[in-house]
Write a structure and sequence with these properties.
- The complex is a heterodimer.
- By secondary structure, chain A is α+β, with helices and mostly antiparallel strands.
- Chain A has two domains: 116 residues, Alpha-Beta Plaits (2-Layer Sandwich); 99 residues, Alpha-Beta Plaits (2-Layer Sandwich).
- Helix content of chain A is 24%, strand content 35%.
- Chain A is built from six helices and twelve strands.
- In chain A, the strands form two sheets. In chain A, strands 1, 2, 3, 4, 5, 8, 9, 10, 11 and 12 form a ten-stranded mixed β-sheet that branches. Chain A has a two-stranded antiparallel ribbon with strand order 6-7.
- Chain B has a domain of 210 residues: Cobalamin-binding domain (Rossmann fold), CATH 3.40.50.280.
- Chain B is built from 21 helices and 17 strands.
- Chain B has a six-stranded mixed β-sheet with strand order 2-1-3-4-5-6. In chain B, strands 13-14-15-16 form a four-stranded parallel β-sheet, with helices on one face. A three-stranded parallel β-sheet of chain B has the order 8-11-12, with helices on one face.
- In chain B, helix 4 crosses helix 8.
- Chain B is α/β, with parallel strands linked by helices.
- Classes of the chains: A alpha+beta, B alpha/beta.
- At the A-B interface, helix 1 and strand 10 of A face helix 1 and helix 11 of B.
Chain lengths: 226, 590
């Protein structure tokens, strides 16, 4: 079984989670690697995507696990020969079982590019607030709100933007909602296409955040990078 | 950050506008720059095989490159207008007006308003006469070119027939004129390009001074261009699969079917060639499904050999082979083997044998019984049936025949399986008498009469258990009928309707019947001229186009229809339509 780390960029940032699965299946079919299929009436490729990425957000750290019996080096080379440029593979680990990243990832780093200028210091102090209630519209309730303070783990602002480490996965903060709240409170403007996910984390039994790459390094029998 | 990017980030489904698909060539912005437009949403336009073929065909040329543009959804159009940004191409976000040539594929009469919608958003004048050398050359092609007259005056060039060779030749003529030391002169280019076979230049070839335009087709279909490394959409599109044609043309000669006559002569691809293409497509696209297309798949003489050659590789790669357009009389259990036993679709088109003879749909009641018995034995329990209403000589007895077929299907299913859980879905469309068919002179029935027949059928089908009935609002068919047999006077109607809010007319929720009726009245048009029966002794607006099938043949077929006489398939012997298909030969057969 192989866990692949790949990026999502350029036009591919507008590919939804469900379309992404189709992309993966087509890319893997093009590789002609011996990917395993489910049994049953409608066999499907055994591919497990990681946590979702909101439409329009780029990423340097997406993960997918594929049930295929080849070395990480062969997998990565074949994948990169057959994938769309916007979903280029970065690393591959041979793992003994599906790490179920969609279930265990609990935080991620994001970069929000935008001209903060002199307001960066004020924005940076957001992390210290005990409560930060923002508009958090959902399909069911367009006027919903959410207190995101407990879900913002680290925040560092500079003149060109903002780095945030916050909840992701089953409990999550939508980057666009956070951006909208900061924009309206501080009168700043972020780039609409300037949001990038930089890293994903799992919680260790001790409660600390650990980079998914490090977790996979610990799990893997073999690894390959670009 | 450009303003286009800002707009894409605000619209529904931005992937429609930003490109970056797998197998999308890198543009150098050199040579003749062509933008291929489809006046419908990305998901619809990208599903079109013709677009994929011509897009890659041009991009394989040394001297030209091709980009794409689709009709933006209304939310996107509103933002473009608000920002006063012209509609750009997908690949390099270049405004359409900055291209050398802009091509429109016109698939369907109800897209005419969307051509103007796109030109309007692109800041390009609608009428060819209003565009000088500063504007791109506008080219149209596609199935509607069989009668291009309603939209002819919007375009500089109309491609009649197959474009794979014609379009590169047009581009080459253009390139030479652009490079001319005396400077580029649009009028001189048009005079020159009119000599390319298949090219119709509406400004030079007018109803007042006609010359014949010969439809273009590829004589060697076996070796016709096919891009194995074709675009793979980033988002789900309507037909999200590869399509490989088995053959072009059709031997059946159903008298209502324009495609059956327009795409002649009959030309096959060998099973080996199709299999090789399909294997290449799987490697280069990764699609999970390949549709083996043609006008009547079951009539492909090499189908058994093809499936035998291709199926092992398709199964190994988990690729489904779809066989659309299977005719009832050729339904063969073997072809559907391994397919999911869900629903079978057949098109008897008419309810009685008499009327099927009139329209020359060579299916008998025995064919229906035999094929369905076979299908039920294999485990199918759902049948979709397509019929047409408003056929010439149709009576209420023929409608009763549709009900009778449904009852018989239930009885057959019961006899074969001992169960009653069969579902029958009946779908009825209006006959629109189309150019280049033996029915091109027939009257189209009125919306009022259509409603009567639809309700009659609806009530009668209620009595049969397990049957659902689908039918369409006839107002769309009425307009489609007007434009199908229209002439140049209708261009004004299209412009008026667009200016008063018509667009995306093919989408039920956007179709504005009132606007079109108002446009017809405002332009002083009597729609009966187009919907009534046409005089046999006068040339019809599209008859300056030589499609191969002769007027004499169509007239003979019309007479046979009125005598309830069927005409056998061309495979049983050449019927002398005028196309002289090499695949059939003098003695008939393949």
């Amino acid at each position: 079984m192989i866990t692949l780390k790949y990026c999502k960029r350029d036009a591919l940032i507008y590919v939804s989670h469900i379309d992404l699965l189709r992309h993966m299946e087509r890319t893997l079919r093009r590789t002609d690697l011996p990917v395993a299929y489910s049994q049953g009436y409608n066999p499907h490729m055994l591919v497990n995507l990681g946590i979702t990425l909101p439409l329009g957000v780029a990423s340097a750290c997406e993960y997918v696990t594929v049930d295929v019996d080849v070395s990480p080096a062969v997998f990565l080379a074949r994948y990169n020969a057959c994938c769309p440029a916007g979903l280029a593979g970065l690393a591959a680990w041979q793992v003994p079982k599906n790490p179920n990243l969609a279930g265990v990832v609990s935080a991620a780093d994001y970069r929000f590019a935008g001209a903060l200028g002199d307001k960066s210091a004020a924005v940076g102090r957001l992390a210290a607030r005990g409560s930060y209630v923002i508009a958090y519209p959902t399909k069911k309730d367009p006027s919903a709100q959410k207190d995101v303070a407990p879900l913002l783990y680290a925040l560092r602002a500079d003149r060109e933007g903002l780095n945030v480490c916050m909840a992701a996965g089953n409990t999550t903060v939508r980057p666009q909602s956070l951006i909208a709240a900061i924009e309206s409170e501080f009168g700043v403007q972020f780039d609409l296409c300037g949001v990038t996910r930089l890293a994903q984390y799992v919680r260790t039994p001790e409660g600390a955040l650990s980079d998914v790459d490090a977790m996979l390094d610990g799990l893997a029998q073999d690894k390959a990078y670009v | 950050m450009s303003s286009y990017q800002e707009i894409w980030s605000k619209v529904d489904k931005p992937a429609r506008y930003v490109g970056g698909e797998y197998n999308c060539p890198t543009m150098r912005k050199e040579g003749v720059r062509f933008c291929m437009c489809m006046p419908d949403l990305y998901e619809v336009g990208m599903s079109n095989l013709g677009l994929r073929l011509l897009y890659h065909r041009i991009n394989d040329m040394q001297s030209a490159e091709c980009e794409r543009c689709f009709a933006p959804a209304l939310d996107c159009a509103a933002l473009l207008r608000e920002a006063n940004l012209p509609l750009p191409s997908i690949e390099t976000q270049t405004p359409l007006a900055d291209f050398d040539m802009v091509g429109f594929s016109v698939q369907y009469e109800m897209l005419y308003s969307n051509v103007l919608y796109m030109l309007d958003l692109a800041h390009i004048p609608f009428w060819a006469k209003d565009r000088d050398e500063r504007y791109p050359i506008l080219v149209a092609g596609g199935p509607c070119a069989v009668n291009p007259e309603p939209f002819a005056e919007f375009f500089d060039i109309i491609d009649i027939g197959e474009g794979e060779d014609m379009l590169p030749e047009i581009i080459e003529v253009y390139r030479k004129h652009r490079a001319s030391p005396n400077g580029y002169d649009k009028a001189a280019f048009l005079r020159d390009v009119a000599r390319v076979e298949g090219v119709y230049v509406p400004a030079l070839n007018t109803p007042e001074a006609r010359s014949v335009v010969k439809k273009r087709f590829l004589p060697d279909f076996e070796n016709a261009y096919y891009p194995e490394a074709q675009l793979v959409s980033n988002i789900e599109i309507v037909h999200d699969r590869a399509m490989v044609e088995l053959y072009r043309g059709c031997a059946n000669g159903c008298r209502f079917c324009q495609a059956g006559f327009y795409y002649r002569p009959l030309r096959y691809r060998s099973a080996q060639k199709v299999a090789d293409i399909c294997k290449g497509v799987i490697d280069r696209t990764g699609y999970a499904e390949i549709s083996l297309g043609s006008l009547s798949t079951g009539d492909y003489p090499h189908l058994r050999e093809l499936l035998h050659t291709l199926r092992p590789e398709a199964d190994r790669r988990h690729v489904n082979l779809a066989l659309p357009s299977l005719r009832l009389d050729t339904f063969d259990g073997e072809f559907s083997e391994g397919a999911r036993k869900s629903s079978l679709t057949f098109a008897p088109e008419a309810g009685t044998q008499r009327l099927r003879d009139v329209i020359n749909k060579n299916i008998t009641d025995e064919d229906i019984n035999r094929s369905l018995t076979l299908a039920f034995r294999q485990g199918y329990n759902s049948v979709k049936l397509y019929f047409m209403l408003g056929l010439p000589t149709e009576t209420d007895e023929d409608l009763a025949g549709i009900v009778e077929i449904c009852s018989r299907i239930r009885a057959l299913y019961r006899a074969e399986t001992g169960k009653k859980d069969v579902t029958v879905s009946v779908s009825c469309n209006a006959l629109i008498p189309k150019p280049l068919t033996p029915f091109q002179w027939e009257a189209q029935i009125s919306t009022q009469e259509m409603l009567r027949r639809q309700l009659l059928l609806k009530n009668a089908l209620r009595a049969v258990k397990g049957v659902t009935f689908h039918y369409h609002d006839n107002t769309v068919s009425e307009l489609e009928g007007i434009f199908a047999r229209g002439d140049r006077r209708l261009a004004k109607v299209i412009e008026y309707a667009y200016r008063h809010g018509a667009c995306f007319d093919g989408w039920t929720e956007h179709f504005k019947y009132d606007v079109w009726k108002e446009a017809i009245a405002a332009c002083g048009i009597d729609e009966r001229v187009y919907l009534d029966s046409q005089p046999l002794d006068k040339p019809l607006p599209w008859e300056f186009i030589d499609c191969g099938v002769t007027r004499g043949y169509l007239l003979r077929e019309r007479e046979r229809a009125y005598r309830n006489e069927a005409t056998p398939s061309c495979l049983k012997g050449c019927q002398g339509c005028g196309c002289k298909c090499a695949a059939i030969g003098k003695g008939g057969g393949v």
